[in-house]
Design brief:
The structure holds two protein chains of two kinds. Chain A is mostly helical. Chain A has one domain. In chain A, helix 3 packs across helix 4. Chain B is of the alpha+beta class. Chain B folds into three domains: 219 residues, ATP-grasp fold, B domain (D-amino Acid Aminotransferase, Chain A, domain 1), CATH 3.30.470; 88 residues, no CATH class; 154 residues, Cathepsin D, subunit A, domain 1. In chain B, strand 10 and strand 11 form a beta hairpin. The chains are: A mainly alpha, B alpha+beta. Chains A and B meet through helix 7, helix 10 and helix 11 of A and helix 1, helix 2 and helix 6 of B.
């Protein structure tokens, strides 16, 4: 372990998972940037997928250690319940034409109700792991649902759905990456590696080539014979 | 799929990353973007520059103003819009008002005063604005769609977009609303995008939705190509003037064409979309690169450059259809000098005189003549002097009769053709009498196409064009009588 990190964790008592998460954050942000600029997959901005990734990570922590499957299972269940109830709540409130903030308030209330019933269900099924989930994770997920609804209003159902899928996809990949034990140890040993992402982002940030998606978008004109 | 072709084509097409980094950031400054993003400000600035826009009826900037607003002063027909709206969100068009005071939309559905107020409130609350920030509402006159679009557009008004860069119009298309798009001129919703030839203002290739090619108006045999956009030159002029007035370096200028007022600018866009490339079946990238760095001194020069550099799709279409090249009635042609003769001199002078191998001359494309004629002096210059000397030896008189000429040909025809460069002889009847001319075969290049012309040689030094190309040598071309100098 890097001496500075060792000092922080072992002498000063900073939690290891906090340090790991902090070191991983630039990595996750880089993945999201890469997917947007080079592949062309869109998400709800950059912070929504980061938040979801860390919610997944929090949910994977159990008393005995961490469980990759549990994080994914509970995380996706929570995300789907939150996004589904938010969409339904939006569809209902759309008909009565309300101002944006009161409407959002109603949507968030219904989402909370949905999460609440998830708790009821979990306690019925004796899923201890889900019941012990921390409040902040739930709040983060609910906060992200506002982004989704705002996209829903602006771009319609289909775009919001595609964006939700894209966001969950990237979050899952990022989650799997940051849960990888070898990578965690590596980052704790060489924490400065996370600074290398700056160089990667400089390259991504100056990239003016096609996004992978654009090869499909412009397929018709890419395969035509040059006319002159 | 051929990867080399894809790679080659991809160098002509503009992608999102490059658009943002190479064109929007450096060419659209914050101040200019602010104008384009605010429709009221756009209107004000364009009006000041004497560029026509739809007339503003009223605007509301906050809830207090909304409460005081006198709704009865609105006319029966108008459009309500958010000032900073995105992608046409929040826009409603009202065609009339019924006896109960309800406004009527295009699809005949009605909206009452309370509903209209609610729409205005939502707009002010930022429902349709970027990041949901508070917005303003404005009302403007409804543009009455020009009648040429009657059979092409469903309900809503077609929207003509010109992409301008560096004061040169570089690409254009018209978006035609369909039933599928619910009368909205939005391709993502299923509207039709028809490319417009920059030179002529005539539509060419069309797509429906995001990329599906379409040829005719659904349910009819009316073709989307060949529609002449009215006021084309004025549209190009206003587009360049709008760019100058706002300071946007790379912009999409959207027009509606009013039946009485002509073209009106409804919106400027500082982040032009890229699907215009799919309609045009061509990339923006090479056009931007070509337009970059050109010094455009005036609006009319910008129009001319746009037409010359990026127009001509119509001709291309005809060329693709017939496999023939379109040329004008006067063309520059390139004639190669005869190889054997030039060889010796060229060996020493090659470095300086490479260009002299070819000669560029004006030629008249004359469908009234069967045979091609070429000036004797020019032929001599090109290295066929010995052929002319050979012909002169026969000392054929200038004014023959038809009968005499025929006889003469029978007598000495074979002797004339004995020179290697002379491939025939022709009897030409004109108002000056009948003459016999030698015919030689010369390789030439007309508008990029190489052909061997069979030309009769005569002294044309007193005439404007040293070469006349006749019908027999024009089988690979289509002639546009309004055009001069293709290349």
């Amino acid at each position: 372990m890097n001496p500075l990190i060792q000092f922080l964790i072992e002498t000063k008592g900073v939690s290891e998972s906090s340090i790991t998460l902090l070191l991983m954050l630039p990595l996750v942000a880089t993945i999201i940037a890469f997917w947007r600029q080079i592949i062309g997959l869109r998400t709800f901005g950059i912070y929504a997928p980061i938040l979801i990734t860390f919610v997944f990570y929090q949910l994977s922590i159990t008393i005995e250690g961490s469980s990759l499957i549990q994080g994914l299972k509970y995380g996706l269940a929570l995300a789907i319940v939150v996004f589904a109830t938010a969409s339904i709540a939006h569809e209902i409130t759309k008909k009565i034409r309300l101002h944006y903030l009161p409407k959002m308030s109603i949507v968030l209330s219904i989402v909370t109700l949905g999460v609440f019933s998830l708790f009821v269900l979990a306690s019925y099924l004796n899923k201890g792991g889900f019941i012990s989930i921390d409040t902040l994770s739930i709040l983060l997920m609910i906060a992200v649902s506002e982004q989704m609804i705002s996209m829903y209003i602006k771009k319609g159902r289909k775009s919001a759905f595609i964006l939700t899928i894209g966001t969950l996809f990237i979050s899952t990949i990022s989650y799997l990456l940051i849960s990888w034990k070898n990578l965690q140890d590596f980052m704790l040993q060489y924490p400065y590696v996370s600074l290398l992402t700056i160089i990667l982002n400089l390259i991504i940030g100056k990239w003016t080539g096609f996004r992978l998606k654009e090869y499909f978008r412009f397929k018709n004109i890419l395969i035509q014979n040059e006319s002159d | 799929m051929n990867p080399i072709k894809v790679l080659k084509n991809s160098r002509r097409i503009l992608g999102i990353n490059e658009r943002n980094l190479t064109y929007i950031r450096p060419y659209n400054k914050k101040k200019a973007k602010r104008i384009a993003d605010n429709k009221l400000l756009t209107k004000k600035i364009l009006k000041k520059a004497n560029i026509p826009v739809p007339k503003l009826i009223a605007s509301i900037s906050n809830h207090a103003e909304l409460d005081r607003f006198n709704w009865d002063k609105l006319p029966n027909s108008f459009v309500i819009k958010p000032v900073t709206g995105l992608e046409g969100g929040g826009i409603e068009i009202f065609y009339n008002r019924d006896r109960n005071g309800n406004w009527i939309k295009a699809d005949r559905s009605k909206i009452n005063l309370e509903e209209l107020k609610n729409l205005a409130r939502n707009i002010i609350d930022g429902k349709y604005s970027l990041h949901n920030s508070p917005d303003q509402v404005f009302f403007e006159e409804r543009v009455k769609t020009h009648k040429v679009f009657k059979y092409y557009a469903y309900k809503g008004a077609p929207d003509i977009r010109i992409i301008v860069f560096n004061n040169i119009p570089i690409m254009s298309y018209v978006r035609l609303p369909t039933k599928q798009s619910d009368g909205k001129a939005n391709l993502a919703k299923g509207a039709i995008g028809a490319a417009i030839d920059m030179a002529t203002g005539v539509t060419t290739n069309a797509i429906i939705g995001k990329s599906q090619p379409i040829e005719t108006v659904p349910g009819t045999s009316l073709r989307f190509s060949g529609l002449k956009i009215p006021f084309w030159n004025r549209i190009l002029r206003y587009a360049i003037e709008a760019q100058k007035a706002t300071g946007l370096g790379f912009a999409a200028i959207d027009f509606l064409i009013d039946r009485e007022k002509g073209p009106l600018i409804v919106e400027l866009n500082a982040r032009p979309g890229l699907s215009i490339q799919l309609s045009n079946r061509d990339g923006l990238k090479w056009r931007l690169e070509k337009a970059k760095g050109l010094k455009v001194k005036s609006v009319s020069q910008g129009i001319r450059l746009g037409k010359d550099l990026f127009g001509g799709e119509i001709e291309e279409e005809i060329e693709n259809l017939t496999g023939k090249q379109v040329i004008g009635f006067i063309e520059w042609i390139y004639i190669h000098k005869k190889k054997e003769d030039t060889y010796k001199e060229e060996k020493t002078k090659r470095k300086h005189n490479k260009k002299r191998l070819k000669k560029k001359v004006k030629a008249k494309i004359d469908t009234g003549a069967l045979l091609t004629s070429i000036d004797a002096n020019l032929v001599a210059e090109l290295g066929y002097k010995s052929a002319l000397d050979h012909f002169d030896k026969f000392d054929i008189p200038e004014d023959l009769t038809r009968l005499k000429a025929k006889k003469l040909i029978q007598e000495i025809g074979d002797k004339i053709e004995s020179h290697e460069d002379i491939v025939g002889k022709s009897i030409v009847h004109s108002s000056h009498g009948t003459t016999i001319r030698p015919v030689i075969s010369i390789p030439v290049k007309i508008s990029g196409i190489k052909i061997d012309i069979r030309a009769n040689v005569v002294d044309r030094s007193k005439l404007i064009y040293p070469v006349i190309i006749g019908r027999r040598d024009l089988s690979q071309f289509i002639i546009d009588p309004t055009k001069k100098f293709n290349s």
